[in-house]
Amino acid sequence: MLKNYGVMLKNYGKTALRNFVRNKFFSLINITGLALGLASSLLLFLWVRDELNKDAFHQNSTLLYNVYERVFSEGKVEAARWTPGMLASELKLNIPEIEYSTGFSNNDLEGLFSIGDKNMTMVGRYADSSFFKMFSYDLLEGTRGSALSGPEDIAISKKMAENCFGSIEAAYGKSIRFNCPPPLLRNLISSSTGVIY
Q1: Nearest-angstrom CA–CA distance, 30 and 125
Q2: How confident is the model at residue 44, as a pLDDT?
């Protein structure tokens, strides 16, 4: 029985090869179309899978939403993640179903951090007080309720805590001077209220 299947497949292969040689142009069009269709389907599948798995590791991932802004300008519609700075607090204020909302800068901002006589240029991002209540990133020091609770609080990385203070425990609650990059150009003295990975 299995031998018959082998013979059958061999005959199908010969027939396909003969048709390919006889009709080279049409065979090339068919194979190209098949390859493009498979590649497009695979890329679409990977994109959808990536979108569905984005931030899925957070404890409340089914309750997290990303807000996009659509701008109508010069007859075109553009969409982006960049929204006005006060949008997060206004959404929470005006829509009672929203339990938490947070602003977050998606761009890496480089600034000068000063701790005592140590100065270092590092990259960071801005977030507000609800950030750790919404996202379940591990805090090595501090609590979700206290981290970033004030406007001048800062959560630093494990690497920064060890480089600047020697240990994670020593970094908690210490003052850090941060020279903001343009357009803010402010000199903040922040208190370390959390250490994350």
Answers
A1: 50
A2: 96
